[in-house]
Amino acid sequence: MPASESPSRDRYLLHAGLFLVTLLSTALTGAILFIGRTLAWEAGDVFLTVAGFPLSSIFFADAFTFGGALIAFLTVHEFGHYIAGRLHQIKTSLPYFIPAPLIGIGTLGAVITIRQPISNLTKLFDLGASGPIAGFILVVVMLIAAMISLPSPEYLFGVDGHYSIKEYIRLTGQFPDTPISDAPPGSRLTLGSTPLYWVLSMIVPDVPPLYEMYHYPLLFAVWLGLFFTALNLMPVGQLDGGHIIYALFGPKWHARISRSFIFAMLTSMASGAALTLPQILIPVMGGEFLGTIGVWITIASLLTICTIKAFKDLWWKMMLTILVLASFISLLPDAFGWFAYFGWLPWCFLLIFLVKVDHPPVPLSKPIGRRRRVIGYLTLCIFLLCFSIKPFYSV
Asked: Is residue 31 within 8 Å of 62, Cβ to Cβ?
């Protein structure tokens, strides 16, 4: 790299500073998530009190286990992209970590910037696939480590509340097969299972229920690694999955696959809205008739905004098709409720208006070879292993 293009000392300090702040932000979030663990405090392990909260060695261990594991995943993922870029002599920035203190999980992820056009499909493929593959390898290692090192179900005795499940564990020594919770209906956060997580949970004993998993710092961080891997591998636009689809199948099939995936997400979102919004709008609008009209006007409006942008001249056909499918699914929630997820709404807007549905053109002079095609298909399998149709929901 010419000297004039070398990153300045200030830029290195910016990357390092963002990394440190994001680590502290995720650790702080982890501390808040796991502050309910009180056994160590009751055992006299308190060595610091802040604003009236007793802090123990386990408090800090939980916080930095969660934050450190999540940051390790983001770092490995982004450096997979970075190393691939450097190997192809592409001007690529170091990762920019994005802290989000006290919001969600403490971070919005990390990104790198590519400072020149991608000149061929081989470079595009390597840049797209390297990050998810590197991150997935680490996630699998951490997931196996987290599961084989799980404590017994009695671990939950050190968490505030959860009296019903604690009583069940006292009586049986194991977790219940069906959900047990003291939380009011609709307020119990549940994480969605993925094929990989489900398979391992069938093999390893004492895996906690998905509605209690966020009390386990390493396991929760690893689940988030699966979630971020799936998000990045969505076959849309310039996401990693979009790069891979473009390199494997070319621009025409990329456009078809990308729009098919957006169509599926919008259908899931609209179906979820049809099942969720009546509980909100019917009481507000003072009756079932007006409330139902309000629900479908809201759904149609959201679909109109998204389909005009995503499907161009075909937008009204796509909107009507999605409305028909959503109404059908809403009539048979027991059979198709697993597919309905209103939580895709912000992701639909993010993909359609920020990421974009289409991929910018890349020269097609030389297709990728057989070895890369095999890797590409395996990477698409990684997406399926990590994807959950309902990643976060309340029951």
From this structure: yes
